[in-house]
Amino acid sequence: MSQQQAQQDNNVKFAYWVPNVSGGFVVSNIEQRTDWSYEYNVRLAQAAEKSGFEYGLTQIRFASSYGAENQHESVSFSHALLAKTEKIKLIAAILPGPWKPALAAKQLASINQMTNGRIAINVVSGWFRGEFDAIGEEWPEHNQRYARSEEFIRSLRGIWNTDHFNFDGKFYQFKDYTLRPQPLPNKPVEIFQGGSSRAARDMAASVSDWYFTNGNTPEELKKQIDDIREKAKVNNHQVKIGVNAFIIARDTEEEAKAVLQEIIDKANIKAVKNFGDATREAGASTAEGEGNWAKSSFEDLVQYNDGFKTNLIGTPQQIAERIVLLKNIGVDLVLSGFLHCIEEVEYFGQKVLPLVRELEAKQAEQLQAKSA
Ligand SMILES: Cc1cc2nc3c(=O)[nH]c(=O)nc-3n(C[C@H](O)[C@H](O)[C@H](O)COP(=O)(O)O)c2cc1C
């Protein structure tokens, strides 16, 4: 492997949130020049891949809630965006319950083949009971939802990698099953998952390729990352870490902070409160009281996944430095949400990303000089 390739592999990666759900990424009445239409999303995906983003993450929601009135389905939407792009990977969110592993494995193997391996998935375990009730899906309790997701992932891996696959789980069973076509052998479907709770972390430490977590301070993120990596080591498993951040990059810090203040001042109070109530079904309600929104304040909840807490809010230089700090505590990917998606993805690609790469190269040189 060339030195340049090794450096690129070691670079922190960027994903952007795909607005396939209406209402943008903050529960606020501030203007959001972001649109959930397919046409807008094609332009955004093309802008993102040009700007250096390696992934886009779509969301799965079945029912209207909290300012999200319309929701395009994640797998079909991801596939449609892949057809209009060349390099970027799309991560489609999949919810065990509505999805069965046999269908998901078949659907994703075909998309993998048709897009030269650019489809990935985010196996989500459910936090919004209202939508499960609305579509007549059973709502297992928190840890059982993760137990099911873990079996779901083990089933997918088994189907994709084994002929005559047999599996006798609590939730899923397979008998002598052979899938054709399988995903491309050198471009497997990467498996992401979301969460923060004990159950989410344990699943990441056993079966997922990537663990996405909500925004947080570097100190709190480090605790979580160390905890997961320690457990993964015991399981002889490797897992990469992605952290959510709502990025407000502006030419001056004052401008960036003023935008944050305006988002919060114009928060849709009723919707934020309802969203906060719904999140109690997630890890916050478990015995250990950890979980995605266990310690979220009202202000935090204005961004769906605590993205303000990561504090990528300021000038390009400030943001780049904080991203390298995140990398140094073990973060492999920053999942970025924006107020005005296309404009800000482009600004990020022009102003912030080159600084991140400069800082990373400088750090690599320093490390090399030290070890020489
Ligand atoms: C980055 C990220 C993306 C997520 N995307 C979705 C989604 O599209 N649909 C969904 O129902 N849940 C989604 N979730 C929710 C998680 O799957 C999980 O249910 C939630 O984080 C609760 O976690 P906890 O058990 O750790 O509290 C996402 C979570 C994260 C961190």
UniProtKB/TrEMBL annotation:
PANTHER family: ALKANESULFONATE MONOOXYGENASE (PTHR42847), ALKANESULFONATE MONOOXYGENASE-RELATED (PTHR42847:SF4). The lineage of its organism: Bacteria, Pseudomonadati, Pseudomonadota, Gammaproteobacteria, Moraxellales. It holds the Pfam family Bac_luciferase. Gene3D superfamilies: Luciferase-like domain. Residues 14-332 form the Luciferase-like domain. Keywords: Flavoprotein, FMN, Monooxygenase, Oxidoreductase. This is Dimethyl sulfone monooxygenase SfnG. One of its GO terms (molecular function) is monooxygenase activity. SUPFAM superfamilies: Bacterial luciferase-like. CDD domains: Alkanesulfonate_monoxygenase (cd01094). InterPro entries: DMSO2_SphG, Luciferase-like_dom, Luciferase-like_sf, SsuD_RutA_monooxygenase.
